[in-house]
Amino acid sequence: MAGCKIPAGMTEIHHVIPHAQGGRTHTDNGVCLCWWHHRYLAASGWAIRMMRGAAQIMAPPWLETGARKWRTVTKSRTRMTDAVERKNIVRDDE
Prior knowledge:
22% of the residues lie in helices and 21% in strands. It is an alpha+beta fold and 94 residues long.
């Protein structure tokens, strides 16, 4: 979560799509959250989704002015490079 300083080794794995709703226990459906964010995710107003195996977050309405938007959150150099390359691809229909 944005601004959370808890190191990854002290986090819990969160199923983005809950296991009870068919979410797989797999890296493509999991994110590391600190204890507090894991327990109070729904009540805090933050939203998480997975796009192509990378987590995206949306800030709660009380924190973000204007239209809320999804933000990819990763420090993976591979995923960041992939995202830049996808933005730079010119499609034939454009």
